[in-house]
Amino acid sequence: MEQDLQGKIGRFTLPDIFQLIADSRKTGTLGIQRDGDIVMIYFKKGKIVYGYGPRQAWHLGELLKEKSIITQDQLNDAVKTQAETANSKRLGQILIEKNYISRSDLEIILRRQIEELIYSLLSWDNGSFKFYENQYPTEEEITVNISVENAILEGIRRLDEQNRMNEIFPDTNLSLSLTPSPSERQSEISLKSEEWSLIAQIDGCRTIEEIACSQKTPKFEVLNRLAGLKLAGLITTTDGKKPTADHLAGMVEDLAGLLERYLSKKSSVIPNEKTTLQSPEEITIDITSDHSEY
Fold first, then answer.
1. Which candidate, 47, 121, 42, 50, places its Cα nearest to that of 90?
2. In the chain, what are the helix, strand and coil shares in percent, each to the nearest 5?
């Protein structure tokens, strides 16, 4: 087995290595190791076609269930079948054979799984790598076609956002609370349904970590939304002590105020007058907030 490229991460960054493989239109497998983690990325003529790692944040079955493509019972049945066949078949192939999913369903989810894996790799600043020309450790029934350039751009964007989130939430074990809204300052903000869902989880006691892990969407996306709500002055970090009755009543009043302003604004629309209607996924409300703390 010919080893075309190998070395230590640090002297070469992973974006550099990915780009070199893409520019050379190489076909083969890039093995990347850090501590006990080993990740394999398959390339075909410089394009990423497959990838897997033992500690991927999003496993195929959970991704399919999260998208409501399969049920928990269907996932359990497929996992049981996989165990009975001694892992001779990939979980995705078993789900297709059982008619729980289509090939198209699997390709969409598989692409997301591989992209998430690549994004996580770009934050590695140590470890080692080896590239095996024209070699694949396993045969895959279904592959994807991912541009290295696009993957690197998105991965770097996420790293930038992660650094921003670390500045906003240096400790995710802190609790969150709704911010009091003084009446002397007003601004307009649009809240989407996902943001309303997060606000409903904030009670002054639950931590950032607990809220992020309780959602079906990836933790990165949840933290990003929470960071946006904090920058907008809607929420703030607290010491996590159980809120008093007065404080709890104030939080309920703040939340009710947001809804009241939205409803009053909605009812003020004049019938038969040309208006631009908003999507039900995004509603615009007038709120008051004090950004002096931020």
1. 50
2. 45, 20, 35
The yes-or-no verdict on residue 15 having pLDDT over 80 is yes
Q: Which of 132, 136, 137 is nearest to 4 (CA)?
A: 132
Tokens standing for residue 248: 């709890």
Cβ-based neighbour number of residue 69 at 10 Å: 18
Q: What CA–CA distance (Å, rounded) separates 63 from 59?
A: 6
Contact 121, 52 (CB under 8 A): no
**177-195 per-residue burial string, b: 16 or more CB within 10 A, e: under 16:** bbbebeeeeeeebebeeeb
Whether the per-residue pLDDT at 281 is higher than 50: the answer is no
User: Which amino acid belongs to residue 123?
Assistant: S
Please, what is the average pLDDT of the chain?
77
Q: CA 289 to CA 183: how far, in whole Å?
A: 8
Instruction: Specify the pTM.
Output: 0.62
8 Å CB contact between 255 and 189: no
Cα–Cα distance measured from residue 53 to residue 61, given in angstroms and rounded to the nearest whole number: 15
